Amino acid sequence: MFMIPRRWAHTYSGEWRDIARWSTGDDAWAPAVLDEWEHAFATFVEMPHAAAINSGRRGMAAILEHFGIGAGDEVVAPAYTLGEMLPVIQATGATVVPADIDPDTMNVTVDSIARRVSPRTKAIIALHVFGVPCDMPGIMALARSRGIRVIEDCAHAIGSRLEGRHAGTFGDAAFFSLEMNKLVNTFGGGIVVSRDADLIARVRQANAALPCSMDALREKIRTTRIERMLFRTGLAFPLLYLLATPRFHALMSRSYRGAQDVRRSVYRYSSVQARLGLAKLATLPERVRTRSQHVEQLRALLRNDIRIQRVPEGAEASWYFCTAMLPRPAAPIRKRLLLHGIDAAVEGEVMDNCAQLLGYTDCQNTNAVYPRAIALPMFDGLTEANVERIAKALNRAI
Predict the structure, then answer these.
(1) Conformation bin of residue 179: beta by default, left when phi > 0, alpha when psi is -120 to 50
(2) How far apart are CA 355 and CA 78, in angstroms?
(3) Which residue segments constitute the domains of the chain, with CATH numbers given?
(4) Which pick of 67, 199, 295, 329 has the fewest CB atoms within 10 Å?
């Protein structure tokens, strides 16, 4: 491969053929297959209920609605999270209050959340950022003492565990993402898990109310195949170089995100996607182990002043991203890596400074992490030789 991409959508041998076969006729919308997928996912994470829906964000919206979050309420969310999540919360009428992060784990902490809790706080969003679990026992203890709902954002955390339990099993509800770049890739969609059967019924009804169409699935597959062609041929380089150039960054960033966000909330989650999920969930534990080995290899090879995200004791990360803190701003380093044929993400391509977006100036750790965090290539199919090449190039770039 001419370039090492930051991510590579996971597919298995024969997947395109299977999708073509499954997409024909009524079989594409077979309820029994969807039921099987939901049951398999619930069994995997050891929860009583799971419901598929066409995006993780729509799942989050259904959870907020079910919990009665609305005007006059406050929702505490990580200061370092995806900015596009904020409108989902704000659409309920609630106010988002950002909690700062620990600079080593890049997750919110019990103390940072406690500082934001007020009599108006009705929910806490606990994100397991990049697949590294946050302190759910501590967060749950705080929430229970105040009568606050906890929603786990597991968009990055399929396969992550804490104290022997899967991420998503601690809070009142959790949502997972099944988008193209996630560890279980069904070319869009999400899963909600909860012990609340009424919530699960609401999510299923929300999915069933959407129209049936394969258009979004086909478009996402087309986008994935184009992206692969660009990396294999080296044609991705000029586009990424423009993305890394300040003058063109805003335009290229909008184009890049738009290509990954095609028709996110339009069509019903299909049994074609459910079949993909069943196949990929079966191989997930092995793929997470391989990612963990690559991260440990990187830790051993990188300079001491390059700090890969810390995993708390008793936790196991899925390593959706392999994110590191650099000793200086990451944007110029990312541009140097491109010259070595290595794609990496920085600043808003890694995560957003939502404290800043919301007008808060007191989240100092988020302010420090945002410009210096870099997401290095991490995907299924990465090799030990790739990891050595990445480490050598990053050490030289620093």
Answers:
(1) beta
(2) 8
(3) 1-398 (3.40.640.10)
(4) 329
The partner residues of 346 in beta bridges, in order of sequence, read 374
Residue 145, classified by CB atoms within 10 Å of its CB into exposed (0-12), middle (13-18) or buried (19+), is exposed
Nearest residue to 181 (alpha-carbon basis) of 84, 108, 262: 262
Cα distance between residue 85 and residue 193, in whole Å = 19
Residue with the two structure tokens 């069943």 = 278
Where do runs of H (alpha helix) occur along 79-187?
Answer: 86-90, 110-114, 136-146
Residue 45 CA neighbour count, 13 Å, CB half: 30
Task: Return the amino acid letter for 3.
Answer: M
Q: What is the pTM of this model?
A: 0.95
Residue-level pLDDT, tens digit, the chain, 398 residues? 579 999 999 999 999 999 999 988 777 899 999 999 999 999 999 999 999 999 999 999 999 999 999 999 999 999 999 999 999 999 999 999 999 999 999 999 999 999 999 999 999 999 999 999 999 999 999 999 999 999 999 999 999 999 999 999 999 999 999 999 999 999 999 999 999 999 999 999 999 999 999 999 999 999 999 999 999 998 888 888 788 887 766 776 766 655 555 445 589 999 999 999 999 999 999 999 999 999 999 999 999 999 999 999 999 999 999 999 999 999 999 999 999 999 999 999 999 999 999 999 999 999 999 999 999 999 999 999 999 999 999 999 99
366 contacts 269 by C-beta, under 8 angstroms: no
Alpha-carbon distance 281 to 275, whole Å? 10
Could you count the other beta carbons within 10 Å of the beta carbon of residue 390? Answer: 25
- The C-alpha atoms of residue 50 and residue 166 are separated, in whole angstroms, by 14
What is the rounded distance in angstroms from the CA atom of residue 186 to the CA atom of residue 33?
14
Extract the tokens encoding 41.
């996912």
Are 333 and 374 spatial neighbours (Cβ–Cβ below 8 Å)?
yes
